[in-house]
Amino acid sequence: MQAARADTRNMKPLIALVIIMSVLIVAGLVVVVVTIANRVVGGGGAAATPAAAGFAAVDLPVPAGCQVMETTTADDRLILRLGSGERCNQILIVDMATGRLLGTLRLVPNAQ
Prior knowledge:
The protein is of the alpha+beta class. The chain has 2 helices and 4 strands; from the N terminus they run H-H-E-E-E-E. The chain has a 4-stranded antiparallel sheet, with no helix packed on it. It is elongated, with a radius of gyration of 31 Å. The protein starts with a helix and ends in a 6-residue tail after the last strand. The mean pLDDT is 81.
């Protein structure tokens, strides 16, 4: 009889640990299910917004005689490198969501 009581006393920490781990597993499963449900109902959240948003035709001013030599993207920006002439050494930065010109970098020779 005393051996049986000693065994149950030794099992109490193990039972408590199993209960705590079960609660953590259930909580994690609830978080996963809620996250999936929100993404299905919400359509993907903020990641889908730039793709859904668009703009019609936008005129981007490029100096006469200049050509687009290179294009690249960074985050939500379109970067255009112009060339073919002294005054055409420019980099244009455009917001891809709106098509608005954010800035122009003029490449000039170093004065040294």
